Amino acid sequence: MINKQDFRKINDYLWEIPTSFHPDMKVPVWIFADEELLEDALGDLSITQAVNVARLPGLVGHVIVMPDVHQGYGMPIGGVMAAKVPGGIISPGAVGYDINCGVRVLASEIEYEQAKAYLSDLASVLYRNCPSGVGEKGSIPLSTEELEQVCILGANWALQHGYATENDLARTEEFGCLEGADPSHTSKRAKERGKGQLGTLGAGNHFLEVDVVEEVFDPKAAEVMGLKQGCLAVQIHCGSRGFGHQICTDYVHDFQWAVINYGIDLPDRELVCAPIDSPEGQAYLAAMNSAANYAFANRQTLAYHARRSFQEVFGETTLPQVYDIAHNMGKIETHEIEGKQQTVCVHRKGATRAFGPGFAGLPPEYRPLGQPVLVPGSMGTESWILLGTKENDRLSFGSSCHGAGRVMSRHKAKRSIRGDRLRQEMENEGISVRAGSMPSLAEEAPKAYKDVDRVVGVVSKAGIAHKVARLRPVAVIKG
Questions:
Q1: Does 133 have pLDDT greater than 70?
Q2: Mind spelling out the 3-state secondary structure of 415-427?
């Protein structure tokens, strides 16, 4: 049992569990939180999970815990770890089941006051054009050969087929395609699940949302991003669907043997892993990159459907992309650790990359600003656009929070909240809601989540990222 007394307070927004807490800890645990959010984090097993992660072999720096942290599979959601390359490990559970779950934001010049009367119609059209729900099929069925091309090309596949623009790819993390993807390392079952789901949202906490840019905090950055106060924007939150889920399932099973073969002593079987430079580790990395590229293509095709939905309701209009970023990924990166540059595999599970100004992987207009960080709130509450900072590399391997973070389990939310009442409350607040399931709507009620403004406040005050704009929802599409 971990108590508040076990932490060393570094400053008002950073706390440490030192390696002396447990004899098997390889690195300390750092948690970014204020007093209230730290208490929230101690309400489940997320900090215990972070300590377990710190006991894995080959880690460097710190295990990072973001203020939106909550309990996950093996590694807490809102966790970051870095393993040496070579010499470290890679863990499917520390990446997550929804590989490259992420967020895309599109901007517009449509003023909310002028669009208000049409938002109900827009919500209905978006719900029709952007399928959502468990197992829902999309409008772009793929053959096995086409699926493999999506795995290799990522968002470039969407560009080749008319679903993307060059600007979309430029404003996507890794330009929408990770190198090293090899679909031959994915199972037949994974491919069968993925072939029919391109261009779908799925269920759970995935959504498509129409927002209004409520407040701008950095006018210069907002202008570069195309965000205008009082105008509409679109958020798309989804990942690699059943394809990525099956890949994680397959490798969690297969790695049970890897830990035995390589003599890895696990603190928790859910943290099953393999040496990253082993055949097993390389196979998972190739499969994970395949799922990541599928997810980039998935969000890209959903953006295409969102654009044609806007055109159907408002006539000729453009929705330029602000950015697209992942928050469940393992990435090979170089970071300064203990005064020297090291190549590491950064596992971000429920955490986004947040590199600062000068990063070469950004389009030219963003390099002086830093990387956009997209932080959706809970359903019906505000979301945020941030920018990564230069000093964040030494704080958290250039990572940030990814959302509000749960404080109530899905099961508890469904037992205590009625979806139909929640929907009516949101409609009364001027938010058009389209959802296929009232229980799934209840799972994502705002009271099931932390206060996203508080989470973002910690991230901002800790120096991880700074605020650009806050978005308010006016239409929500869910499975």
A1: no
A2: HHCCHHHHHHHHH
Residue 453 clears pLDDT 90, i.e. is over it: yes
Burial letters 146-159, b for 16+ CB under 10 A, else e: ebbbbbbbbbbbbb
Phi, psi of 33, rounded to the nearest 5 degrees: -170, 155
295, two tokens = 């997810």
Average pLDDT score over residue span 341-355: 97
pLDDT at 365 over 70: yes
Task: Please tell me the distance from the alpha carbon of residue 152 to that of residue 290, in angstroms, as a whole number.
Answer: 6
**Position 390: which residue type?**
K
Q: How far apart are CA 327 and CA 97, in angstroms?
A: 12
Q: Note if the pTM is more than 0.85.
A: yes
- The tokens of 83 are what? 């393993």
What are the two backbone dihedrals, phi and then psi, of residue 354, each rounded to the nearest 5 degrees? -145, 60
Q: Return the amino acid letter for 458.
A: V
Calculate ∠ Cα 34-328-10, nearest 5°: 25
User: What is the Cβ-side half-sphere exposure of residue 384, based on CA atoms within 13 angstroms?
Assistant: 26
DSSP conformational letter for 304: H
Rounded to 5 degrees, φ, ψ at 211 are -125, 165
Q: Which residues pair with 477 in a beta bridge?
A: 208, 434
CA distances from 113 to 148, 231, 282, 309 (A): 44, 8, 52, 19
Show Cβ contacts of residue 105 under 8 Å, excluding neighbours closer than 6 positions: 233, 234, 235, 236, 321, 322, 323, 324, 372, 374, 385
The predicted-structure confidence for 251-304, as pLDDT tens digits, reads as follows: 999 999 999 999 999 999 999 999 999 999 999 999 999 999 999 999 999 999
Q: Which fold has domain 4-478?
A: tRNA-splicing ligase RtcB (3.90.1860)
Residues contacting 268, CB < 8 A, separation 6+:
49, 52, 74
Cβ(282)–Cβ(288) below 8 Å: no
Domain range list for the chain: 4-478
DSSP bridge pairs for 326? 102
Residues noted as catalytic: 402
The whole-angstrom separation of Cα 313 and Cα 120 is 10
How many beta carbons lie within 10 A of that of residue 470, not counting itself? 22
Residues 387 and 373: beta-carbon distance below 8 Å: yes
- Residue 306 tokens read as 């969102």
Reported in sequence order, the residue ranges of 71-177 that DSSP labels E, i.e. its strands, are: 77-84, 89-90, 102-111
The closest alpha carbon to 351, from 290, 396, 409, 410, belongs to: 396
List of residues 6+ apart from 425 with CB closer than 8 A? none
